Amino acid sequence: MAEKINILIVDDEPRVVAEIEEFLVTKNFNVYKAGVPSLAFKILNKHFINIVILDIKLPEMDGLEVLLKIKKDFPDIEVIMISGHGDMDTVIQAMRNGASDYFAMPFRLVEINNAIMRTQRFIELNMELKSAQQNVHSLSKKILNSIGNQLLGNSEAMKLLINMMSKVAKSENTSVLILGESGTGKELVAQGIHQLSSRGNKMFYSVNCSAIPESLFESEFFGHKKGSFTGAVEDKAGWFEIADNGTLFLDEISDMPMGQQAKLLRILEERKVSKVGSRESKEVNVRVIAASNTQLEILASENKFRLDLFHRLSVFVINIPPLRERKEDIPLLFDYYLNQYSIQMQKPLPKVDARVLNSLQQYDFPGNIRELKNIIERAVILCDGDIILPEHISFSGCMQSISGDTNTTDKNGNTQLNFDLEQHEKDLIQKAMTHAGNNKSKAAILLNITWQALDRRMKKYELE
Question: Which domains, from first to last, does the chain contain?
């Protein structure tokens, strides 16, 4: 960081304070001191403090109470706890209350310095995240507050996406079709549109169309009356009724059988539903957002999807860019998820070797954001030190196939990468089936898709 870090030491032992202060000054930090919490809070209210080094045992207030008050009143300040007792329950409580690090005395001053360096990464990361949120789009703040930072990014592609979401959100009855590869965050975009609209405080209901047996379609979508069929032991509301005045998100719409598509089209046109076993119909006010990782227009031209339903759903189309088309967002996304998983696993936030980010930006991420998250989670698990190294990064089968036997060589013997996406998908399915002992259910779990989606792809590539 360009400016000096301001550090406040809160400890009632003058010898300890003097020793830490002397060391920190030699490291070019600005140091403030307080022997009691009341003085500490006066300093916090008067000066901009980045880090507090806080003792557990203090007069006036317990150190854990001071920690809670600091995190409540000054949430951006990071706190490093020190104590003469290494009680594990106290350590756990301190970390739960928001401490970024903890040391039991006696400790080496170099350990304090290392802790400050790690904490400084938290501060820099928070500044980057806040800057990114401000730069994306003013309306994106509501989305980020509602569904998290998964849509974070500074790229022009992300700014355009947020802009499209905010515009269509104002037209609350317009059907939206979201297109994007697996792992790009189609449901997150749908949630964002819902949150930005006037329906934001109503129900958002998500349905995976590939997981609905055709025999249960009407019961699930429209509901049923008690006794209308075997097993109907009570009245049941359908998904349209549940999402009334809200949003119904239809994921994997391309996997819906043709027979179900006709029934869905009728409801979208009439805006009325009749429960199975009932002659009465009920009007519903539902916004429908559909999503697909396949171009529905192509499926319609091949008579694999109803053209009239495609036109009904695609009043407003949003294309989510794959991660390979916005690689400038990778460092920011990496830092965000690295911070997230470090907190979840109660590990200090590590630094990142420059070679790691370089390799990630050379990779095409066939699994998009979902794959990036998996890579980072594995790296945090594998990393036992204070830096993420290249050996902590492992790519999926897609990456291995790109660098494996699907490559070709030119006349000079140089490796030529094969970017045939269908071939890579076919190869990956075959690897998953082999690894799963030809069990489709297990292979689908490995591939992070539904059994029905895997079955459809296997038929497409004649892999049965």
Answer: 6-133 (3.40.50.2300), 138-319 (3.40.50.300), 326-385 (1.10.8.60), 408-460 (1.10.10)
